[in-house]
Amino acid sequence: MNRPKTASMWQPTCLAAALALWLVSALLLITSVAGDSLTTDEYSRIPQGYYYWSTGRYSWGGDHPPLLKLLVSAPLLLLGLPIDPRFWSLPPEEAMDLFMFDDKTSVDLVIWLARFPIILLTLALIAFLGWWARRWYGPAAGLLALFLAAFNPEFLAHGRLATNDLGVAAFLAAALFAAEGACQRPSPLRLMGAGVMTGLALLSKFSAILLGPMLLLQLMSPDSGVRRSRVALRLGAIGLIALAVVELGYRVQIRQMTLEEQATQIQTLSPDDSIRTPALGLLSPLPGIANFCFGLGKLREHAREGHPAFLWGHYTDRGWWYYFPIAFAIKTPLPLLALIGIGLAWRRGGTGRREWRSLVGPMLVFGGVSVFGSVNIGNRHLLPVYPLLIVWVSRVAAAPLSRVRLGFLSLLGAWYLVGALLIHPHYLAYFNELAGGPDRGWRYVTDSNVDWGQDTKRLAAYVKTHNLHPVSATLGGRGTPAVFRYYLPGITRVWPPLEEMPTGYYAIGRTARTLGPYVARQRFSPADADLLIRLLARLDRLTPIATIGYSIDLFDLRPEAKVRAPEGTPFPGAAGP
Predict the structure, then answer these.
(1) Distance CA 550, CA 197 (A)
(2) Burial of 326 (C-beta count, 10 Å sphere; 0-12/13-18/19+)
(3) CA 35, CA 15: separation in Å to the nearest integer?
(4) 386-444 pLDDT per residue, tens
(5) How many CA atoms lie within 13 A of 310 on its CB side?
(6) pTM exceeds cut of 0.90
(7) Helices in 185-310 by DSSP H: which ranges?
(8) From the centroid of its chain, how far is CA 505?
(9) How far from 374 is each of 81, 225, 299, 425, 476, CA to CA, in Å?
């Protein structure tokens, strides 16, 4: 008799608190996005999506599915932006510069409109995780899950950028939840929902292909009284619906391409690629699926080639098995790590079959596969794990909730909230206290963990405010000449061919500082590589006069400069991050 009364007491309080937390999270997302400049992946995703809508064709950029490119670029159709018929025939960097920095384009308006759908998707994910946890574990657990999602630094970092990462996390979580209901308590509507969500996840990012083994967990551990043969049939139905969604999604991208043109694209895969022949065979009956397979082939090519990566003073382009465990350990708030420990030690109710099927098992699958990855460029690749993790740890708040447990969870929550507020608006550069926070975390991992081009506007504002000149800069990611012309007029781009050491004020992104020597030896001429390595060695002996948003260091290299701030002492008058 007491349980319904307790639940009824919790319900209005939890709902009011959940709404307040959700609104604060929305405010953080919207206010943090204003100061960010165009990031590395946005530079390619936004133009590609717009030209998918406008031309119904593509010739490069097939290494990611089209859904989120189409989603972020859809609001831009209202602007009637100019269409250049040369777009797909140009080199990718030139084509993307042509779109993003056209004289008739308001770059800031384009970026804001493109980010807005992802902000809405993030807010929907936050609400969904709270609802999921409430449905499984009760009102207090639902509130905890919503709180953890609303102030998760990774959600706040990538949940406001026009990229793929948040979208695949959202759709993958929705697919797993829907599949749990469809397989164990089936109905036509549940089967349709699970199939659609699975298809949308596959159209978001190719890492969603791991939904295959994840959904097989439904077959391996069904509820008592549920026959495996029936579960297998339901999984088959979900798979067929998902393939239909993928087929329809890709047809937007290829609607103006002939089969011959699509075949030419697929034939750019290596003849030895095992995907090439099946993709060509599928082209006539299922062109969308064929192009999906082509994208998988391009992704495998990228994985085989590798990608330059930095980890704690070491370099490789083949990856480390321990990269993602380390990145997760230092990019995840310590209170959330503590909740994981509590969840593992918590005995009440154990971990039931549905948790293994829909939460723990899928996390192990995704995390286990990640250790074999050769593209180690950011903890964002683990983003699909976070929604499942948040729902799973929320069960520690399930009723009955003692005062001691409530007090301990409140302390962890306060710590978690303060961490999210203190880093605002620089969420991409979040590191927990284990790594020394955002000031020192870049010494362990960089790239999209820290420096994704987001602080270019802030650098320009700092230079203008302090009237610095002359200024030169080396920025990682998409630091193209067009980016410099738009964001950094009057600032010299330091990039090969290099003629001499910079002499005035010099700004350098932290990805360039850490990966610079490795990339220089691989890609630059010996003379350019030697000059850049000597420059970076010199910078390591100096203290920057300012750090912009935790991702760009600004140095004073003027021969006549008299002020040399000792290590750890801020330059007088320098702005904080």
Answers:
(1) 37
(2) middle
(3) 32
(4) 999 999 999 999 877 788 888 999 999 999 999 999 999 999 999 999 999 999 999 99
(5) 23
(6) yes
(7) 188-202, 211-220, 228-254, 259-266, 276-282, 287-305
(8) 32
(9) 38, 43, 11, 30, 20
